[in-house]
Amino acid sequence: MVVRSVFTLLFPLLLCTCGRAPAPVAAPPAEVFKPGNPLIKDIGMSDPHARVFGDTVYLYTGHDTSPDDDLWDMREWRVFTTTDLVNWTQRGSISPQDNYMDDDSSDAWAADAATRNGKYYFYFSDQKRSVGVMTSDSPTGPFKDPLGKPLVSPRHDPTAFIDDDENETPYLVYGDKEESYHVGRLNEDMISLAEQPRPITITGEAWANAPKWMDKSYLFKYDSTYYLSWGRDYATSDNVYGPYVGRGAVGQGHHLDQFAHGSFFWWKGQFYHVWCYYLVNGKKYRETIMTYAHFTDDGRLVTDTDFLDQHFANGVGQYDANWDRIEAEWYYEIADGAGAKKRDAPDGGFQVGDARAGDWLRYANVTFGPDATEFTAKLIDADRGMGIEVRIGAPDGPVVATVVVPGGGADAFTGEVSGEFSGGAGRRDVYLVFTGSGAGRVGVDWFGW
């Protein structure tokens, strides 16, 4: 390939191991960008790879220079951060002048980052020629080139994947359809390979129909299954080396096509898909968008384009009580160790099911008007005796609405419940806190005011 230009890094004038001094970069104050989709307009944000380090999301991107470019003119990589998915700040740029690439290179193609042993590793493309690696003590740099030469050559578009096995084994994935995607295990030092990278076998119609040039793969793992994505399609395997079986498209619309370079990431128990698209056919200038992503009960990966259909400009991580409804699966955060999880909804789409007493869902930055006087929720398979407290600001914050599962009947309840809302107007975080006793469970399809 998986906010706005302001340099905040001042690369020290120290010689790197490749014998070249890092290029000096100006350092005006960091600029914060307003929320929504596209994440940041009119800056040529391309090839987004999101990584969570500590309590911050870092977005490593390419930089398309001009909307008028007929060919890719990419002269740097950029690093953006957020702690709420709403406000983005550019923390710096990474220059090809600081690695083995040409000083005047315009081939700074897709990149990715990883951390291990207290250091950060930036894997980058020199066009299709090679993949290199740079290191830093900070996720925002400055980065230096420890090798002074490619890590692998030829091919491009790296993903750094850390498995969840006992050793947290690191891998590098890269390449394109013409020469095959490849995967190879990295050494503990993260700057050398422990094995010869192996070609990845992919079966299925989507891969067979993909163009010869298809590149920018992304690899992640969920519930013991490896997911390998490209464009709008993906494949799965029970082995990191494959073979992978094609599963089809993650979604339709909103530029989810063969050019949708992007990545997936977890944040506070929610899953997201971020990708870029060309503004004008034939011109090499892109913008980046983000939405929620989900897994069906049988493990199918779904990018939530329904959210984009309704709330594209709003973006993730903030909500409006004036919406017709807020889907439960659009939560911003879920309690650690919660039994609640996204599930298939009986009528299609998703719900948050199996919530038990003490679980909670957080919806950050909800805007309320003066007309928000009643809270309504659509419950699914809710056990008698269960309920929901709507709290403001924290899981133990003030209770501003309460709904309970109607009594009577032996079967679980599915239907709407309502209660008076006393939260008033303003913008605040809302927590749905589940109440009850024993082994009771409740599912939520949607809610609103």
Characterization of the model:
The chain is built from 2 helices and 33 strands. The relative contact order is 0.11. The two termini are 41 Å apart. The protein is globular and about 70 Å long. The protein is 3% helix and 44% strand. The protein has 2 domains: 32-311, Tachylectin-2, Chain A (5 Propeller); 319-448, Galactose-binding domain-like (Jelly Rolls, Sandwich), CATH 2.60.120. By secondary structure, the protein is mainly beta. The model is unreliable at 1-28 (pLDDT under 50). The longest helix has 7 residues, at 305-311. Residues 324-449 form the CBM6 domain. InterPro entries: CBM6 (IPR005084), Cellulose-bd_IV (IPR006584), Galactose-bd-like_sf (IPR008979), Glyco_hydro_43 (IPR006710), Glyco_hydro_beta-prop_sf (IPR023296), Glycosyl_Hydrlase_43_Enz (IPR052176).
Give the C-level CATH assignment of the largest domain: Mainly Beta
Query: Which term fits the overall shape?
Result: globular
Strand content: 35-45%
Q: Mind telling me the C-alpha Rg?
A: 23 Å
Q: What are the low-pLDDT stretches, counting only 5+ consecutive residues below 50?
A: 1-28
Q: Mean pLDDT, as a whole number?
A: 93
Summarize the structure.
The chain has helices at 205-209, 305-311, and strands at residues 32-33, 45-53, 56-63, 77-82, 88-94, 108-116, 119-126, 130-136, 159-162, 170-176, 180-185, 198-199, 202-203, 217-222, 225-230, 233-237, 244-249, 262-267, 270-278, 286-295, 301-303, 319-320, 326-327, 333-334, 341-344, 350-355, 360-368, 374-382, 387-392, 399-404, 413-420, 426-435, 442-448.
